[in-house]
């Protein structure tokens, strides 16, 4: 079934078939025309479906920082990563308001479960690219038997040994509808065109939009003193940012993360946001005694600043700490104005990779 934003090339790449074969199997498709979302296509058998990747395949990066990163790119890269690294498990843990799948990727089989999530906020989509590059680095090192260096500790991390101790889960795009809205806007044929333009203060430029497509801030949706966050925000209705909704967990994306996290019982969670180069590690005294020291290790690894944050409620990290009493971190990656430009990706990732390696090792 065609997903929003799909092209024939992306579909062919996702399923490992030649683009020409896709057209032959679906003669009603015409090259160069838009493929309508929801359309069902016939898929030809992939060429050499049992072929295993060689080391040359592995050295080529799949997760490239070449353009603004959206939901179709995510789907395409997940499929390519799974073909190259069959030990990556992908689970659809829920659906967005518009019906897009919310993916969770898993590597490892250890007793300790760690979650990294990204793109709670729509105009922070670069965090999805950071998360996907990290899982590719881990998968490649695991496949080749290589180690990854944590510079601050002068230690080479044995990824194969770590994968037997830790199960790493990555939810790379919590808010796919919002990300697509930021990058593509809405045309006049969109069923919610008039409503969304009104919520965006009459503008067709959605680059500053943080919320989901319902105009609700997903990181203000969790049952952690939610009522106080509502009072603090002072918003009387949906909009581009900071509206906590009518009730906690009222939006499907927030409920998906809530139920997924309850089910997996994570030892640690990290939520990637932008920007500020800061790490928030506390919540109203619910955090474990070691949380500040652990945040210090993440700060040392990344060069970011560990910050004791006050006056904020209802976030995913807040709820996790309150609910489980375990370490939870919000990481504000990079510096500048959201959405951060793709040209900054390599510089940001150099620090985030180190932070995430240190976090998985905690």
UniProtKB/TrEMBL annotation:
Source species, domain of life: Bacteria
Record GO biological process: proteolysis
N-terminal signal peptide: none
UniProt cross-references to CDD domains, sorted A to Z: LysM, M14_Endopeptidase_I
Family: Belongs to the peptidase M14 family.
Name assigned to this protein: LysM peptidoglycan-binding domain-containing protein
Transmembrane segments: none
One GO CC annotation: extracellular space
UniProt xrefs under SUPFAM superfamilies: LysM domain, Zn-dependent exopeptidases
Cofactor list: Zn(2+)
Domain called Peptidase M14: residue spans: 67-360
Domain LysM: 1-43
Molecular function terms, GO-annotated: metallocarboxypeptidase activity; zinc ion binding
């Amino acid at each position: 079934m065609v997903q929003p934003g799909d092209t024939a090339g992306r579909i062919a790449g996702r399923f490992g078939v030649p683009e020409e074969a896709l057209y032959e199997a679906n003669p009603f498709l015409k090259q160069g025309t838009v493929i309508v979302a929801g359309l069902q296509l016939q898929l030809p058998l992939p060429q050499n479906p049992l072929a295993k990747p060689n080391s040359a395949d592995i050295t080529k990066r799949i997760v490239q920082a070449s353009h603004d990163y959206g939901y179709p790119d995510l789907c395409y890269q997940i499929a390519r990563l799974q073909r190259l690294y069959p030990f990556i498990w992908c689970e659809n843990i829920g659906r967005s308001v518009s019906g897009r799948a919310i993916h969770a990727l898993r590597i490892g089989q250890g007793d300790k479960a760690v979650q990294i999530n990204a793109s709670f906020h729509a105009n922070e989509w670069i965090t999805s690219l950071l998360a996907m590059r990290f899982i590719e680095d881990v998968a490649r090192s695991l496949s080749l038997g290589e180690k990854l260096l944590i510079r601050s500790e002068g230690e080479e991390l044995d990824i194969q040994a770590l994968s037997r101790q830790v199960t790493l889960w990555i939810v790379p795009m919590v808010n796919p509808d919002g990300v697509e809205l930021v990058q593509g806007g809405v045309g006049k044929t969109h069923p919610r065109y008039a409503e969304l333009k009104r919520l965006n203060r009459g503008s067709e430029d959605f680059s500053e939009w943080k919320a989901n497509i319902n105009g609700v801030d997903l990181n203000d949706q969790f049952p952690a003193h939610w009522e106080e966050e509502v009072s603090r925000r002072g918003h009387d209705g949906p909009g581009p940012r900071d509206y906590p909704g009518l009730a906690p967990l009222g939006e499907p994306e927030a409920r998906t993360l809530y139920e997924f996290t309850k089910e997996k019982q994570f030892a640690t969670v990290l939520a990637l946001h932008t920007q500020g180069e800061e790490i928030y590690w506390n919540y109203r005294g619910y955090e474990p005694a070691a949380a500040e020291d652990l945040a210090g290790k993440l700060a040392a690894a990344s060069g970011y600043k560990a910050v004791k944050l006050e006056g904020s409620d209802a976030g995913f990290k807040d709820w996790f700490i309150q609910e489980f009493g375990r370490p939870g971190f919000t990481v504000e990656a990079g510096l500048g104005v959201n959405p951060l430009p793709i040209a900054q990706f390599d510089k940001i990732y150099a620090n985030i990779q180190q932070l995430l390696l240190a976090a998985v090792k905690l």
